[in-house]
Structures are given as C-alpha cells and as structure tokens.
Amino acid sequence: MKLPKELREKEELRTSGGSSKYCSVIKCRKEAVRSLSENTWKDYVEKAKLKYKENRFKKIYLCKKHYKAAKKIRQKDNKYNQKKGFLDDSLNSGRVR
Ligand SMILES: [Zn+2]
Known about the structure:
Bound molecules: zinc ion
Number of strands: 2
Radius of gyration: 18 Å
Order of helices and strands: HEHEH
Largest sheet: 2 strands, antiparallel
Number of domains: 1
Oligomer: single chain
Helix content: 40-55%
Strand content: 5-15%
C-alpha cells in the first residue's frame, strides 16, 4: 500500500525515539513540519536568505514559517519559468514585425 506523500513525510519527521525533528535553519529551534529533498529545495531555501544545517539524509527540515518562506520563492521561480517560456514564444512571433 502506498502512503500519501504528506503521511510519508510525517513518518520521516519522527525519529525512532518518537520525538520530532527540528527545523534545519540555523538558529531556528522550531519543530519541523516538512521534510524536503535537499536537491530540489536547496536553491529556494538559499534564495529566501536562510542558512540551514546539512544532514546526511540529504533532507532539509523546515518549520512552518521557514517552509512558507521557501515555498514563496519556489512559486515565484515557477512563475518566472513559465513566463520565460511564454516570452520566448511571443518573441519568436514578434519578429515578424
Ligand atoms: Zn525554522
């Protein structure tokens, strides 16, 4: 049986002792709400001007506040990429002028 992604993340956030993981951002001691892949989220976390502690699981754990900050950057980034594709299209058709 496949677990939904959110549930799996919750499982990951629990250590074997049953206590929760904490936010990877340096100087932040809040409980993590999300466990994210370092590969995917590294840039966004860095662009949000957050410094995080790396760990051997290649995961970034974020509390609610820091996850929101990183998510904002990610959404902006996605929008920018979509826009860029759109602009490329319009640029090509605009050459006719
Ligand atoms: Zn945090």
